[in-house]
TrEMBL record, chain A:
Pfam families given in the database record: PP-binding
Taxonomy, superkingdom: Bacteria
Protein name in UniProt: Phosphopantetheine-binding protein
SUPFAM superfamilies hit by this protein: ACP-like (SSF47336)
InterPro entries per UniProt: ACP-like_sf, PP-bd_ACP
Domain annotation Carrier: ranges: 1-80
UniProtKB/TrEMBL annotation, chain B:
Name of the protein described by the UniProt record: AMP-binding protein
Domain AMP-binding enzyme C-terminal: 303-375
Residue stretches in coiled coil: none
Gene Ontology MF annotations: acid-thiol ligase activity
Family matches, as Gene3D superfamilies: 3.30.300.30, N-terminal domain of ligase-like (3.40.50.12780)
A UniProt-annotated Pfam family: AMP-binding_C
Location of the AMP-dependent synthetase/ligase domain: 83-232
Length: 81, 381
């Protein structure tokens, strides 16, 4: 698994645990708003945290849809090239 | 007209001028204006000395002088006639603009007060900002001593204040909090503290009183359009409610959700949000500090005041970071002696806030990042 994927999985887990929620098993197929106890503010936190830690902002030119962890990883890997 | 009295002294790095001989030079004859760049500070020719010399030269030649703080391209085609001082605006709401001021508008009103004691001023602001230039002129007119080190950060300025026994200071509340943190073991003998440019909250005023008990503290309310409106000297945040019926500089104050300044046919909306609390009118933040977090409006400054008042937190900067999901996200930069205590206190506060207002990104720093004008940056793209 790529370094970026590791970071995304770790930060997602961190955000869920900070809410004092029990973190379910996260896989790349997990969908943020369906399978994980996350809301839109948590997603925004994840995006901002990722920008701060990786320096990558795949949304610079506007919003792009994503639902699952795998889709988000693809966006970051695409923007990092 | 201003002249430099021999009692005025200026202390800059590698330069100590007492009884300065600033003689106007005639080298400016035939020139349309004088321009000095804010990045032109060198140890053998420090900036404040050069600014004073430039003002004297421009006054002598009766031409404008431009203090170009951020070294921008200047359009020389639309200059005022005669002596005027050009300064760049802070640029908080866009690109900095060049605005010319007549000397009479900049000159302090309270000079030559016979009861005044000799002051040693620390220059906290950039000398090419409106507030910075006022401190320079105040020191010149009152024949005081001015200690300036343009490139020093606030921690170094705090040390300079102790080294030179500074007893007068003009700063934003954010600058003042940073200085107080540096002075936790020893403070300079401050007698006069003037706050301006941001909200002076009760917590900051109380901390100043505790750490500098002998200082006379006042906080000034001024706007870009109308200049200084009033100054508050009772050590309490905001201003007395009875002032809403009074006139200041020909302006009648009225309260809606923001403070309004009215004269005959004109009403200026200051954009400063206020709330009435007992016999006080309190400032709660700029109207443009209101950000939209996923459809919920959050006032960054109101939230920041709550955070600064928490136990263990010495200063904070609440800002909004843009993101594609909720538009803005609330973030906070904190100064604290014990990060664990600060985190706990913030967590407790966050539980009482609506989810959109909870700071999501929390960072710690030794000193809050401030803009060139000593204010906190609020919106990050």
């Amino acid at each position: 698994m790529s370094n970026l994927a590791d970071i995304i999985l770790n930060e997602t887990r961190q955000i869920i645990e900070n809410k004092a929620e029990v973190c379910p098993e996260i896989t790349v197929e997990s969908e943020f708003l369906v399978d994980l106890p996350m809301d839109s503010l948590d997603l925004a936190t994840l995006i901002v945290t990722l920008e701060l830690t990786t320096g990558i902002d795949p949304f610079r030119d506007g919003f792009k849809t994503f639902h699952s962890i795998a889709e988000l990883i693809a966006l970051y890997e695409g923007a990092a090239v | 007209m201003f002249v430099i009295d021999e009692l005025f002294s200026l202390i800059e790095p590698d330069l100590q001028c007492s009884g300065i001989d600033f003689t106007p030079s005639s080298s400016c004859e035939g020139r349309a204006f004088i321009e000095l760049s804010g990045t032109d500070n060198t140890s053998n020719s420090p900036l404040v000395s050069k600014m004073i010399q430039a003002m004297l030269d421009a006054q002598q030649a009766d031409i404008p002088v431009i203090f170009n703080r951020t070294n921008q391209d200047i359009d020389g085609s639309n200059l005022p006639t005669g002596f005027a001082i050009g300064l760049l605006t802070s640029g908080t709401t866009g690109q900095p603009k060049l605005v010319f001021h007549r000397l009479s508008k900049l000159m302090p009103k309270n000079a030559n007060n016979p009861e005044k004691v000799a002051s040693r001023w620390l220059l906290c602001y950039h000398p090419m900002s409106f507030a910075g230039l006022q401190v320079i002129l105040q020191a010149i007119v009152s024949k005081d001593t001015l200690i300036a080190d343009v490139d020093a950060n606030l921690q170094c300025k705090a040390e300079l204040a102790i080294k030179h026994n500074v007893n007068a200071i003009s700063a934003t509340p954010s600058m003042m909090r940073a200085l107080l943190m540096s002075w936790h073991t020893k403070s300079p003998p401050l007698a006069v503290i003037t706050l301006g440019g941001e909200i002076a909250d009760q917590h900051t005023l109380d901390t100043i009183k505790l750490q500098c008990p002998k200082a006379k503290v006042r906080h000034i309310y001024a706007t870009t359009e109308a200049g200084v409106i009033f100054s508050v000297k009772d050590g309490l945040a905001g201003f007395p409610r009875t002032w809403l019926k009074q006139e200041f500089n020909g302006l009648q104050l009225t309260a809606t959700h923001t403070l309004q300044l009215n004269r005959l046919n004109e009403s200026i909306d200051t954009g400063d949000c206020i709330t009435l609390s007992g016999d006080r009118v309190l400032f709660t933040g700029r109207e443009d500090s209101l950000v939209n977090v996923g459809g919920v409006k959050v006032n960054l400054e109101t939230l920041e005041q709550k955070i600064i008042a928490l136990v263990g937190i010495t200063d904070a900067r609440v800002y909004a970071k843009a993101n594609p999901i909720t538009g803005a996200l609330i973030c906070v930069e904190l100064c604290a002696d014990d990060q664990q205590i600060a985190k706990e206190a913030l967590k407790e506060l966050a539980e009482q806030l609506e989810p959109a207002a909870r700071p999501r990104i929390i960072t710690f720093s030794e000193q809050i990042s401030l803009s060139a004008t000593g204010k906190k940056q609020r919106l990050i793209q």
